[in-house]
Write a structure and sequence with these properties.
- The complex is a heterodimer.
- By secondary structure, chain A is α/β, with parallel strands linked by helices.
- Chain A folds into three domains: about 100 residues, Rossmann fold; about 45 residues, no CATH class; about 210 residues, no CATH class.
- In chain A, helix 1 runs antiparallel to helix 3, helix 6 packs antiparallel against helix 7 and helix 11 packs parallel to helix 13.
- Chain B has one domain.
- The chains are: A alpha/beta, B mainly alpha.
- The interface between A and B is large, with 58 and 58 residues.
Chain lengths: ~425, ~300
C-alpha cells in the first residue's frame, strides 16, 4: 500500500533543477508549464532536467549537481542523440521536439512513489582529504587559513578594502550551474564577507567547445542575415528577448510570480496592452530603479557594437538606424546616460516599448538581407574583462544583479554581434 | 497540566491553521500575479502538494555541518512563532498567555528570530547560507529598535504592557489612527524580522536560497512552516496592537481577531509578490535614517496626544 503523503506529493508540480545546455528548443518555456516548478537550488528538486548537450568542461559540475539532489531523485535528458555523460544513459529521455514537462512529471511521480529507484550518486571523484578542522565541529582554529590544505580552498587573510581591518578572504568559483548566473557561466571571486574583492569571468564554455546554439526566439536574427524577414517578426523577437531578460532580473529581485508573467508574455504571442500592463507592474515593483550607480560602464568603455549595453551608456549605436527597412518607420535609437545597472534595465524597458511601436508601424514591411542586423544577444567574450572590473568592490547581491544586467547570452555564435556597431 | 495541554493544542491548531492559510494566500496571490490557470482547487491543493513533496524528500547533509545547531534552527523558529501567538488575546482576558508584559514577550520573541536564522545559515558549513545568516544579523539589528519603539508607542495609551490592555485601550479609537506612524513602521520592520520579501535578502535568489540553500526534506518543510508561522504571529499581534484586536461590529470578537490578522497577512503576501527586494545596504541606511526617527516621532506624537 502506498503512503497517501507520497500520492499527494506525486501530484505536485515536479520541483525541477534545470541544467541548460546547447539546445535549439525553448527551454525558458518549460518554466511556465504547470506540471513542473523550476527551483533555484538542486537541494530542493526531485528531478534534474538536462536540456541539451553539455560541453566537456561542464560534465563534472553537472554530475556534482546531480548528486546534490536529495533522494528520491531522477534525471531527464532532453535532446537528440546519445546523452553527453554515462550517468545520463539511465535517465528518462525526451527528444528535442518532445514534451519535457510530461517526462519530468512522470519521472517525479515514479521516483516519489518508489516505482522507480532513486538514482544513486554518480560518484564523481573530488580530490579532497577528510575535513580536519579544529574545534568540536571542525569549523576553524589555528592553521585553517590560506591555501588548499584539505583539497578545498580555505580563507586567506587580507585587509578589507572598505575599512582596512584584516579578515578572512574566501576564494570561490561560482557556477557553472548557479541559478542566478547565465547557464554555463562561471566566475572566480575573492569574497571579503559579502563584498567582491576581485572577480574574473570564465570564457563561455559553449562557444569555446563549438557548441553554439540558437534559441527559437532569436532565430529571426539569424535568418535576417541571409533572408528576407518581416520587420514585425524581428521586433517581436526583440521584445521576447528583452522580456526574458527582464524575467531573470525579476527573479533576482525575489519577484518569482511577476517573473513568470513576464516569461509568459515573452513566450506566447500577446497584445501590446498586456505588455504595457506588465511593464507598469514591473515599474511599480521598484525593480527597474534598483542599481543606480552600480557597475557603471562608461561610454568609452562600452564603445560600439555592444547593443543595449552601449546604448545604456549613452552610445547611440544601433544598426537599425542605417537599415533602409527602418527608415520609413522614423526609427531613432533610444539611449540612457548613466551606464549603470538601472540604466541597462531601463534601456531594455524602453526598447520593449520602442519595438511595440515599430511592430505597429511596420505592418507588412520586409527587411532585405545585407545591412547589419541589430541582434540583442551579447556573447560573453564581447565584454568579459570590463565587466569583471565593474564587479570588483560590489556587495555580492549587487554583483549578481550587475552581471545579470549585461544579459550575456551563452552559446551565442561569435558572429552574432560582429556586424553591428556601424559608426 | 490539563490547562497546559489545552494551551499547547490551541496554539498548535492556531499555528497550523495560520500557516496553511498564509500558504494558500501566497499561492493565490502568486497565481494571480503570474496569470497562472489552476482555479480555486489548484490554489488550495498546491501548498499541500508542495509540502508533501518536501516531506517525502530525504534530508541531505553537507561536509562537516554543525548537525545539532542545524536541527535546532527550525524548531527554535517554530517555537518563537508559537510564543508570538500565545500572547494574542482573542477576547477580553482570553489569551493562551495573558501575561502583564505580553508586548515585551512578543518583542523578545521577534528579536530572537535572528538567532535561528543565523544558526540555519552557519550550521551547514557552506558559503552562501553563511552569507544569508550574516545578512539576517544586519537586517535584524537595524529593524529591532524601530520595531520595539512603535510597540511601546502603542502601549503608552494603555499605560500597560499587557496586550489585552492595549486592545482594550483602543475602544473608540484604534492605534492605527492614534499612533499614525506605528502601523507603517511596524509593516516595514516586521517582514524584515521575518526575512519576508521585500526583505528576504537572507534567503535571496542571489544566494540560491541563502539560509535555505542546503536544507531539504522535513527540515526544509519545518523551516518554511516556521517562517509562515512567524509571519502569522507578527500579523496577529499587529492586528491586536494597531487594529483594535477583537473590537468590531456584529461579529464575535475572535472572528474580528482572525479577520484582522488575515488582512495583515494578505497585505504582506501581496507585498511579497509585487515589491522588489530591498538591497541590504539600502535597508540598513533606511532603518537608521528613516524608520528609527519615524518610530521616535511616533512615540512623541502619542505622548503629545495623551497630554
Amino acid at each position: 500500500m502506498t503512503n497517501p503523503l507520497r500520492h499527494l506529493a506525486a501530484g505536485a508540480p515536479a520541483p525541477t533543477y534545470l541544467l541548460r545546455g546547447a539546445l535549439d528548443a525553448d527551454a525558458d518555456a518549460v518554466r511556465l508549464d504547470p506540471r513542473l516548478r523550476v527551483v533555484d537550488s538542486p537541494r530542493h528538486a526531485t528531478v534534474l532536467l538536462v536540456a541539451g548537450r553539455l560541453p566537456d568542461p561542464l560534465l563534472t559540475p553537472a554530475a556534482l549537481t546531480h548528486d546534490a539532489l536529495p533522494h528520491p531523485r531522477a534525471s531527464v535528458w532532453w535532446g537528440d542523440g546519445d546523452p553527453p555523460a554515462r550517468w545520463l544513459r539511465e535517465a528518462v529521455r525526451v527528444p528535442a521536439d518532445g514534451d519535457p514537462a510530461a517526462a519530468v512529471c512522470d519521472a517525479h511521480a515514479q521516483a516519489v512513489l518508489g516505482r522507480r529507484p532513486s538514482e544513486p550518486a554518480v560518484g564523481t571523484v573530488v580530490d579532497r582529504a577528510a575535513w580536519d578542522g579544529v574545534g568540536p565541529y571542525g569549523h576553524g582554529g589555528s592553521g585553517m587559513t590560506g591555501g588548499t590544505p584539505y583539497g578545498r580552498s580555505l580563507p586567506d587573510r587580507d585587509d578589507d578594502p572598505r575599512d582596512g581591518l584584516t579578515l578572512d578572504v574566501l576564494r570561490v568559483t561560482v557556477g557553472p550551474f548557479f541559478s542566478a548566473l547565465p547557464p554555463g557561466l562561471s566566475i572566480d571571486v575573492r569574497l571579503y564577507g559579502d563584498l567582491v574583492g576581485a572577480c574574473e569571468l570564465h570564457e563561455d564554455p559553449f562557444a569555446t567547445s563549438g557548441l553554439s546554439f540558437v534559441a527559437p526566439h532569436a532565430e529571426p536574427f539569424e535568418r535576417a542575415r541571409t533572408e528576407r524577414v518581416a520587420v514585425a517578426n524581428l521586433e517581436q523577437a526583440r521584445i521576447s528577448h528583452h522580456l526574458r531578460a527582464l524575467a531573470r532580473t525579476l527573479r533576482l529581485h525575489g519577484l518569482h510570480a511577476l517573473s513568470d508573467r513576464a516569461l509568459r508574455v515573452a513566450v506566447a504571442p500577446t497584445s501590446s496592452r498586456s505588455v504595457e500592463r506588465l511593464l507598469r507592474l514591473v515599474a511599480a515593483s521598484g525593480a527597474p530603479r534598483a542599481g543606480a550607480g552600480t557597475a557603471v560602464l562608461t561610454a568609452e568603455a562600452a564603445g560600439l557594437g555592444l547593443g543595449v549595453v552601449a546604448r545604456a551608456s549613452g552610445v547611440a549605436d544601433d544598426a537599425r538606424e542605417h537599415d533602409p527597412a527602418y527608415a520609413p518607420l522614423g526609427f531613432e535609437p533610444v539611449t540612457q546616460r548613466r551606464g549603470d545597472v538601472r540604466a541597462r534595465t531601463q534601456q531594455r524597458v524602453a526598447e520593449i516599448r520602442q519595438s511595440l511601436r515599430l511592430c505597429q508601424a511596420a505592418g507588412d514591411a520586409v527587411r532585405e538581407p545585407g545591412p547589419p542586423v541589430e541582434d540583442p544577444r551579447l556573447p560573453v567574450d564581447a565584454l568579459r574583462e570590463p565587466v569583471a572590473e565593474t564587479l570588483a568592490g560590489l556587495e555580492w547581491g549587487d554583483a549578481v544583479l550587475a552581471l545579470d544586467s549585461f544579459d550575456f547570452a551563452v552559446g551565442t555564435p561569435r558572429a552574432a554581434r560582429a556586424p553591428a556597431g556601424v559608426p | 497540566m490539563t490547562a497546559l495541554l489545552f494551551a499547547g493544542v490551541a496554539v498548535g491548531a492556531a499555528l497550523s491553521a495560520g500557516v496553511l492559510t498564509a500558504a494558500v494566500f501566497d499561492a493565490a496571490v502568486g497565481a494571480t500575479v503570474a496569470r497562472t490557470a489552476g482555479g480555486p482547487r489548484g490554489v488550495l491543493l498546491t501548498p499541500l502538494r508542495r509540502a508533501a513533496v518536501v516531506a517525502v524528500q530525504r534530508r541531505t547533509t553537507t561536509e562537516r555541518p554543525d548537525a545539532r545547531a542545524w536541527a535546532l534552527a527550525p524548531a527554535l523558529l517554530l517555537g518563537l512563532a508559537a510564543v508570538m501567538l500565545t500572547v494574542v488575546p482573542v477576547a477580553p482576558g482570553v489569551a493562551v498567555a495573558d501575561v502583564p508584559h505580553g508586548v515585551v514577550l512578543f518583542g523578545a520573541a521577534a528579536a530572537t528570530v535572528l538567532i535561528p536564522v543565523f544558526l540555519q545559515g552557519w550550521s551547514p558549513n557552506s558559503a552562501f547560507p553563511l552569507l544569508g545568516g550574516y545578512r539576517m544579523f544586519a537586517q535584524g539589528l537595524s529593524s529591532m529598535i524601530p520595531f520595539a519603539l512603535v510597540l511601546i508607542a502603542a502601549a503608552l495609551p494603555a499605560e500597560s504592557l499587557a496586550i489585552g490592555d492595549i486592545v482594550a485601550s483602543q475602544q473608540g479609537l484604534w492605534n492605527v489612527v492614534r499612533t499614525p506612524l506605528g502601523l507603517p513602521v511596524y509593516l516595514a520592520t516586521a517582514p524584515a524580522l521575518a526575512f519576508w520579501q521585500p526583505f528576504s535578502g537572507p534567503a535571496g535568489s542571489d544566494l540560491a536560497g541563502g539560509v535555505e540553500l542546503e536544507a531539504s526534506g522535513p527540515h526544509l518543510l519545518a523551516w518554511r512552516c516556521a517562517q509562515y508561522g512567524v509571519l502569522v504571529g507578527m500579523s496577529a499581534v499587529g492586528a491586536a496592537v494597531f487594529l483594535g484586536g477583537w473590537a468590531g461590529p456584529a461579529l464575535p470578537g475572535p472572528v474580528w481577531v482572525v479577520l484582522k490578522t488575515l488582512f495583515l497577512v494578505f497585505v504582506l503576501v501581496v507585498a511579497r509578490h509585487l515589491v522588489a527586494r530591498v538591497r541590504m545596504e539600502r535597508f540598513v541606511v533606511g532603518a537608521w535614517v528613516v524608520l528609527l526617527p519615524a518610530a521616535l516621532a511616533d512615540v512623541f506624537i502619542t505622548g503629545w496626544w495623551l497630554l
